[in-house]
Amino acid sequence: MRIGIDLDGVVIDSQTTFRTYEEIFSIEDLDNRKITDFEEPNYQGRYVWSKEEQEKFNQKYLLKAASESGLMPGFLPVYNRLKKLGFEMIVITARGGLIKEMIDDAKRLLNENNIVFDKYFWNIHNKLEVCQKENIDIMIDDDYKIIQQLSNAKIKTLYFRDTRLKRLNETDYVHEVNNWGDIYRYFSELKK
Questions:
Q1: Number of C-beta neighbours around residue 5 at 10 A
Q2: CA end-to-end span of the chain
Q3: What is the pTM of this model?
């Protein structure tokens, strides 16, 4: 079975760190501008920031936040178990699109933890195309828009939903998970 896996918010606990720096930036640089949409997974949708403000945030905090982020709790033991069960795991991530050095930072974190995926697709903005080309059986992602796009194309998805993010109805192609224990249970039951 071929599993597609997003990195940020799924393998790397970067979303929590990004959100912290988004708030620091909003308070200190943007005169305490508030979040406008808590359900949005990315700051571009959560706040009303101009392109210049987004670029300033990216330059000031994005790589810093990425470098301070660790692995999601429970990822490593589940990764090891899934590899032992013979699952093929393929990274499909947008990481590197805003700041290329974020790819090197992710590679550093994966190498430090002896994590080797079967394939890597960096700076991907059309995950559907890659999932179709790579014959992905199930994609794990934390962005509801990507989940909707993939499920509409009849690709099974695990929606790694963090608190406050938009809730989706579960279907044959959308299953919500909230941690790596949920993911392990899902794949263990598939193997039966």
A1: 23
A2: 14
A3: 0.92
Cβ-count burial 141-157 (b if 16+ within 10 Å, e if not): bbbbebbbbbbeeebbb
| Positions of the chain with pLDDT lower than 50, given as ranges | none
Q: Give the Cα-Cα-Cα angle 177, 180, 182 (nearest 5 degrees).
A: 45
Nearest-5° Cα angle at 106, 76 to 125: 110
Structure tokens at 152: 């509409």
Token readout for 180 is: 């790596």
Q: What is the DSSP secondary-structure string of 79-133?
A: HHHHHHTT-EEEEE--TTSS-THHHHHHHHHHHHTT---SEEE-S-S-HHHHHHH
pLDDT digits (tens, 9 = 90+) for 24-66: 999 999 988 888 888 887 777 888 889 999 999 999 999 999 9
